[in-house]
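Raw record, unedited: Putative N-acetylmannosamine-6-phosphate 2-epimerase
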Amino acid sequence: MRIHELKRGLFVSCQAQPDEPLFGSEYMARMAVAAEMGGAVGVRVNTIPDIVAVKQAVAIPVIGIIKQEYPDCYPYITPTMKEVREVAATGAEIVAIDASKLTKPDGKTTEQFIHDIKSELDILVMADVSTLEEGIAAWKAGADLISSTLCGYTPYTRKESNVPIELQEPNLEIIAALADKIAAPIVAEGRFWDYRNAVKALENGAHSVVIGAGITRPQIITLKNVTQINAYLQTV
Ligand SMILES: CC(=O)N[C@H](C=O)[C@@H](O)[C@H](O)[C@H](O)COP(=O)(O)O
C-alpha cells in the first residue's frame, strides 16, 4: 500500500493484554469486524496471532505492532527489526514502532531503526512519538506517518495525577504542533475517547484518529461511567 491510498478517518485499536477480559485473537477479530462495519478506515492490532486473525476477518488496512518488553529498556512497541519483520510477514499494511528518543533494545537510534526498516521492507512506517522533536526526527528519517501514541507515556512526558492515565484527557496541543512542522500525515492517538476529541484533533491538523479504549476496552468504558455516576451519588 502507498501512503496516498490511506483514507482519512477513524482507526480502531483492537488490543487486549493477557490480564484483560477480552484477551484472545477471536475476540479481537470480532472487534475488528465491528470496527469495519461501523465505518472505520483501519485498525491497530498487537501480537502476531491477533494480526493474523484480524487480517483474515477484515479488508481495511491493519497497523500491526508487537508490544515486546526488554530488560532495563523503555521502548516496547515494536522496538527492534525482529518484531518489525514478524509484523511485515503477516501482510499488515503499516507497522507502528517506538520512535521516542530513547535508545532501542539493540542500541539503535530511531533514525537508524527507520532507515533499516525502509531499506529492507516494503511496509509503511508509523512513528509513535511523545514529543514534537521526536516527530520531526522520525519524519526526517523517513517515517510515513507520525502518531502521538506515546505522548504522556514516556518517562519525560508522564504527568503525576490521581486520575488513571487511561481516563485523562488527550494532548491536543501536540497534534497542532506536529501538523504545523511536519509534511507527513499526523495521526492523533492516545486517550481520544470518542468523536468529540477526535474532531478537535482533526481541526488541529490531524490526518486521522486512533481510538482504542473508548471503543474496545469495556472494563475501562465501564470504569469511566462508574466514576462519573459514583461522583454524583456521593453528592446526594
Ligand atoms: C501507550 C501505549 O502503549 N499505547 C498502546 C499502543 O498501541 C495501546 O495500549 C493504546 O490502547 C492505543 O495507543 C490506543 O490508545 P487509547 O486506548 O488511549 O485510545
